[in-house]
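To the wet lab folks,

You asked to see what we're planning to order before we commit. Fair enough. Below is the target structure as tokens, and below that is the sequence we designed to fit it. If anything looks off to you, flag it before the synthesis order goes out.
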């Protein structure tokens, strides 16, 4: 099992259970995409595994984020024990958070 999920009050909570590598990143992204397509949540929260994420984990997250954007579903990425690390730089005022950016810059 690569991911686990729970749907609570219209929010899809996905947990990536371990850091991904090249052999399982596509499977994780496809599982997240299938869940979003099937449940049409109001938003998605993805909890990354502990430690610095691997490039494959970030790749899967970026793919899920692009798909969610195409469906106008906000996607938030967090790390274990933190609820303040958001995509697109939200939560940057929290010193414990790390900004995750995907795609072209939109602040210019």
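Sequence we intend to order:
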């Amino acid at each position: 099992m690569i991911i686990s999920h729970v749907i609570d009050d219209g929010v899809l909570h996905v947990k990536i259970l371990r850091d991904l590598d090249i052999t399982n990143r596509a499977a994780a992204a496809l599982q997240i995409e299938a869940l979003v397509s099937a449940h049409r949540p109001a938003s998605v929260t993805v909890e990354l595994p502990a430690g610095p994420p691997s490039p494959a984990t970030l790749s899967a997250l970026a793919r899920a984020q692009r798909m969610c954007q195409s469906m106008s579903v906000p996607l938030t990425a967090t790390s274990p024990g933190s609820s303040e690390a958001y995509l697109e730089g939200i939560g940057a005022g929290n010193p414990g958070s790390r900004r995750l950016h995907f795609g072209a810059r939109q602040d210019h």
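Structural context that might help your review: The beta strands are 3-8, 11-16, 43-47, 75-78. Residues 83-108 have pLDDT under 50 and may be disordered.

Thanks,
Computational group
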